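Not sure how to ask, but would you mind making up any protein sequence you like and the tokens describing how it folds?
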Amino acid sequence: MKTIAFAALALLAAGPTYAAPTGDSADWYYPQWLAEAPHAPAFKVRDTVNKYGRYAAETNTITIKDLIKFHGHFCGGLVEGATALKVAFDRLYPDGIVDRTDLAIASSNSACGGDVAAYLTGARARFGSHRIDPALKESDFVVRRISDGKSVRVVINAATYPHEVRTQMRKIESGKFEPADIDRFQDVQWAYARKLVARPAIESVDVTDDPVYVWPDSACKPLGQRRDNDYKSVPEAK
């Protein structure tokens, strides 16, 4: 019995075991069905050419694939946030080019939604342009164009959101779950993502123009003013 007990203690001391990574096979994290989805959000964005630089003459296109690399994994929340913000940007930038030098956003503290908010808008919590609001849901965003104050609020509509996603999430977070629940959660959130990218974003999103919204105080103490976009409109040298 002592031998068995010591063996068990040794296993515990060694910590949990996980499958070893198999290498960097191309696009393993990016499902083919997502790559081929007819309405996977993509965003044409405008930035500056360098620090203290003018507007760049060219735009960049951000895709879900880019968001996955930034966020660290593919999940329903990533597609959910991108879908909601696609509708917001369509309202704020009907020409299809999102100016990431001119945006502020409020989001929940969701790991997924918060990362999508920061990446797509260029807003930063440390500069006060990304505000964290606990009153907002995971798919709920308020986006403001800084130059003129125009704002929109977007949220995934109730008819689209699958309640089993939240049920499974709460079960896992309670600590009372089985390993199969982890797999089930992936299945239901991926099914949710498939639903979102199979139709135009506006069909999944409620949008309010110029909402009545009180922006919360910044979650970060003042850490200085962002200056690298201040020179974007300086005329060309003669």
Remarks:
- The first strand starts at residue 42 and ends at 46.
- Residues 179-197 form the longest helix (19 residues).
- The helical segments are 2-14, 32-35, 64-71, 76-92, 111-121, 163-174, 179-197.
- The mean pLDDT is 91.
